[in-house]
């Protein structure tokens, strides 16, 4: 006797297979195949049409232009660069400048946003109102307008280069930025950087060992002092072994600008300050909501144990609030990174600015745009992966 594979309502019985559109599973598969097919078809049409139009106009395609000489200068760069370098190196300079603004901005915005968020919950009426005013004003002003404000503030309030302020020997402040003495080129600085990286890895490994030791024996290892000793001691040891160089590269006025030393340009100051202030207001609300989400009983329990307000916030409230804070905090980090593209408006040579100059000179607009998109996508995915990893690490584990 054949086994019935369908119910009386026409739906497939458990374990049965139906190739009818009345079957929800089969219907879902068909719809997904149609959507994927439509996306592939539209993509193929756009790509083939673009390539055909480029060929008709005899416009070269590909990324070989990255090996050609750039022939344009860049105001500031982390690595050595000159107009004789390639477009590829110029693009790398833009990526590094974007990363510099993003990383420093994320760190500063996190610190300031956390302080403002905690201040909003302060029992002091004045502090709470000032923090609330900061958040409400900053969040409702467009970030581009804030960049213009900070840039104009620096450009209009400082004297020209010839009349630069000289508060300390070797320190000059003018419309061209802040110039300070820099370290002369020496292999010792590379040795110290490597030593610091080793110290960071060693501190992380030591922290893992200390936690395991405490879990096994209950003995607390002085991790703060040991970590600080590694982070300071290893670079200091490398400096001593390298001969302790003391030569400084002093800035000097030459023509219409300073040469030598290290400079903080008005453009970098404006983009960093604007993004930091703007994002910190949103992070403050994220931190405040995370703290409020922690049950008040946790605070009462900490006070019952005799913990002061500071340790209660640091050891009891914030660790629990992080589980609420981290997901929306990730979005703010991504927003800050993507908003760094506004640097084009104030002349800071970020990724978008340099790529825009490149595609204007070479005519490789599609390639330039895809490089910008690919770079921002890579940075954003990297931030998301790290924050998701951290979020899983601090999540509650149910047994």
TrEMBL record:
<keyword id="KW-1133">Transmembrane helix</keyword>
<keyword id="KW-0812">Transmembrane</keyword>
<keyword id="KW-0813">Transport</keyword>
<dbReference type="GO" id="GO:0022857">
    <property type="term" value="F:transmembrane transporter activity"/>
</dbReference>
<feature type="transmembrane region" description="Helical">
    <location>
        <begin position="101"/>
        <end position="121"/>
    </location>
</feature>
<keyword id="KW-0029">Amino-acid transport</keyword>
<dbReference type="InterPro" id="IPR010065">
    <property type="entry name" value="AA_ABC_transptr_permease_3TM"/>
</dbReference>
<feature type="transmembrane region" description="Helical">
    <location>
        <begin position="188"/>
        <end position="207"/>
    </location>
</feature>
<feature type="transmembrane region" description="Helical">
    <location>
        <begin position="28"/>
        <end position="47"/>
    </location>
</feature>
<dbReference type="Pfam" id="PF00528">
    <property type="entry name" value="BPD_transp_1"/>
</dbReference>
<protein>
    <submittedName>
        <fullName>Amino acid ABC transporter permease</fullName>
    </submittedName>
</protein>
<keyword id="KW-1003">Cell membrane</keyword>
<keyword id="KW-0472">Membrane</keyword>
<feature type="transmembrane region" description="Helical">
    <location>
        <begin position="228"/>
        <end position="248"/>
    </location>
</feature>
<comment type="similarity">
    <text>Belongs to the binding-protein-dependent transport system permease family. HisMQ subfamily.</text>
</comment>
<dbReference type="GO" id="GO:0006865">
    <property type="term" value="P:amino acid transport"/>
</dbReference>
<feature type="transmembrane region" description="Helical">
    <location>
        <begin position="369"/>
        <end position="390"/>
    </location>
</feature>
<dbReference type="GO" id="GO:0043190">
    <property type="term" value="C:ATP-binding cassette (ABC) transporter complex"/>
</dbReference>
<feature type="domain" description="ABC transmembrane type-1">
    <location>
        <begin position="95"/>
        <end position="387"/>
    </location>
</feature>
<dbReference type="InterPro" id="IPR043429">
    <property type="entry name" value="ArtM/GltK/GlnP/TcyL/YhdX-like"/>
</dbReference>
<dbReference type="InterPro" id="IPR035906">
    <property type="entry name" value="MetI-like_sf"/>
</dbReference>
<feature type="transmembrane region" description="Helical">
    <location>
        <begin position="268"/>
        <end position="287"/>
    </location>
</feature>
<dbReference type="InterPro" id="IPR000515">
    <property type="entry name" value="MetI-like"/>
</dbReference>
């Amino acid at each position: 006797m054949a086994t019935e594979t369908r119910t009386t309502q026409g739906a497939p019985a458990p374990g049965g297979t139906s190739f009818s559109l009345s079957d929800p599973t089969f219907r879902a598969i068909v719809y997904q195949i149609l959507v994927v097919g439509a996306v592939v078809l539209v993509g193929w049409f756009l790509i083939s049409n673009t390539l055909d139009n480029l060929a008709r106009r005899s416009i070269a395609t590909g990324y070989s232009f990255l090996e050609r000489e750039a022939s344009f200068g860049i105001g500031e760069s982390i690595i050595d660069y000159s107009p004789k370098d390639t477009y590829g190196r110029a693009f790398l300079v833009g990526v590094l400048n974007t990363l510099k603004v993003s990383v420093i901005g994320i760190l500063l915005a996190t610190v300031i946003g956390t302080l403002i968020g905690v201040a909003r919950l302060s029992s002091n009426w004045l502090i709470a109102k000032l923090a609330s005013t900061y958040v409400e004003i900053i969040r409702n002003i467009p970030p581009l307008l804030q960049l213009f404000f900070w840039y104009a503030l620096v450009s209009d309030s400082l004297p020209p280069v010839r009349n630069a302020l000289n508060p300390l020997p070797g320190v000059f402040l003018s419309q061209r930025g802040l110039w300070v003495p820099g370290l002369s080129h020496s292999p010792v600085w590379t040795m110290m950087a490597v030593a610091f990286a080793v110290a960071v890895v060693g501190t992380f490994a030591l922290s893992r060992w200390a936690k395991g030791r405490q879990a096994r024996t209950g003995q607390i290892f002085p991790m703060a002092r040991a970590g600080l000793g590694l982070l300071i001691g290893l670079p200091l040891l490398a400096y001593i072994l390298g001969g302790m160089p003391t030569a400084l590269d002093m800035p000097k006025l030459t023509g219409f600008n300073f040469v030598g030393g290290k400079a903080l340009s008005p453009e970098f100051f404006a983009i960093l300050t604007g993004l930091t202030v703007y994002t910190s207001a949103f992070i403050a609300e994220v931190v405040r909501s995370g703290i409020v989400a922690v049950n008040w009983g946790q605070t009462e329990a900490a006070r019952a144990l005799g913990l002061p307000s500071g340790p209660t916030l640091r050891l009891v409230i914030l660790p629990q609030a992080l589980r609420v804070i981290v997901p929306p905090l990730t979005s703010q980090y991504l927003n800050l990174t993507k908003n760094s593209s506004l640097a084009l408006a104030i002349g800071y040579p970020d990724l978008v600015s340099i790529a825009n100059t490149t595609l204007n000179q070479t005519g490789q607009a599609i390639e330039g745009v895809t490089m910008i998109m690919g770079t921002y996508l890579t940075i954003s995915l990297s931030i998301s992966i790290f924050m998701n990893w951290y979020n899983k690490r601090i999540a509650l584990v149910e047994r």
